[in-house]
Amino acid sequence: MNPDDQQAIYGIIGNPLQHSLSPVMHNAAFKALKVDAVYKAFPLETHELSDFFSALKSEDSPIFGLNVTVPYKEKVLEYLDGLAPLAQKIGAVNTIVITNNRTLTGYNTDAPGFIAHLNELKFNTAGADVCILGAGGSTRAILTALCIIPERPSSIRIFNRTPQKANQLVEQLGKAMSVDIVEVVDNVAALDIRYADLLINTTPVGMNDDDPVLIEPEVLHADLLVYDLIYNPKETLLLQMAKKKGARTANGLGMLYYQGVLAFQRWAGLELDEKVKNIMRQALQRAAESL
Ligand code: ATR
User: Fold this and answer.
1) Ligand 1 nearest-atom number relative to CA 137
2) Fewest C-beta atoms under 10 Å: which of 73, 103, 187, 206?
3) 183 vs 24, 173, 180, 276, CA distance in Å?
């Protein structure tokens, strides 16, 4: 972290950022560790990125680490000096580490963050049958994670409103890893959720009260874990329906927490102890309650 007396600044770039929970989580960690640093939100327009990154390279910049969120996780690659192998495979960065000599390295902690949450839920990915709704940035990280872990699922089916986008995504990821377990289906029924162990919603459908549910509720069953990346509302209609069918459910707050812990550990170059991690998690949960 910052060697000088100047207060170190960390932060998140993205747009919009009004509802970002990252500042609360990271500032809670700085406070718990008694580190004189602050985590800020930097809502940037695309045309502001270039100047922002030029300033980051300056010797007297107080910024020592960043998170990156929608819509810049892929765009920032062009401003970085290097990429960790996982970020390279995924083609997206959510964490930037900045060294004292102003070298910018991109990491992806979304992918391991998702797996860490599945582990906490004691979901066994090995040989699992997985269905994914959506084919955007989150799917990119999740799919990579599931394809490269040793405990690989046996099958992953993806349905996206725009099937070409799902095909393109799989084709692109296939250049960096084996995607032999992945199949893009062109209608929601072909997801065969009846046979699945895990259903993941990566679309924003469910954020609004009047949003539909993208699947037929009848296919939900008690042996399923339904993972909705949405955490506001805490329980989407999809999760409510899944619960009624006796399925286990999880929202995206766990993944947000783990990607944050992993990002913080990258910046600090150390493992956080359980006490600090709990403080981060509680801060996150409290902030999520008041959204
Ligand atoms: P994220 O980074 O959170 O994954 P994203 O990259 O914008 O966000 O991806 C959003 C995904 O949700 C996309 O797969 C998108 O489908 P398209 O590829 O067809 O755009 C999907 N999505 C967004 N709104 C949707 C809707 N109303 N119905 C179904 N899918 C939707």
Assistant:
1) 2
2) 187
3) 38, 13, 8, 40
Whose Cα sits closest to atom 26 in ligand 1? 205
> What is the pLDDT tens value at each position of the chain, 291 positions in all?
555 568 999 999 999 999 999 999 999 999 999 999 999 999 999 999 999 999 999 999 999 999 999 999 999 999 999 999 999 999 999 999 999 999 999 999 999 999 999 999 999 999 999 999 999 999 999 999 999 999 999 999 999 999 999 999 999 999 999 999 999 999 999 999 999 999 999 999 999 999 999 999 999 999 999 999 999 999 999 999 999 999 999 999 999 999 999 999 999 999 999 999 999 999 999 999 999
The answer to whether 32 touches 43, Cβ cutoff 8 Å, is: no
Ligand 1 atom showing the smallest separation from residue 134 Cα: 14
Q: How far apart are CA 248 and CA 188, in angstroms?
A: 21
Q: Is any ligand 1 atom within 6 A of the Cβ of residue 160?
A: yes
Catalytic residue among 31, 34, 57, 73: 73
Give residue 136 CA to ligand 1 midpoint distance, Å: 6
Assess contact for 240 and 209: CB atoms under 8 A: no
Catalytic (active site) residue 73: yes
Looking at residue 220, its amino acid is L
To test ligand 1's pocket by mutation, which of 74, 160, 200, 259 has the most ligand atoms within 8 angstroms of CB? 160
Q: Of 138, 180, 136, 132, whose CA–CA distance to 158 is shortest?
A: 132
Q: Are 6 and 253 in contact (CB under 8 A)?
A: no
Question: Does ligand 1 have an atom closer than 6 angstroms to the CB of 203?
Answer: yes
Closest C-alpha to 69, from 259, 236, 211: 259
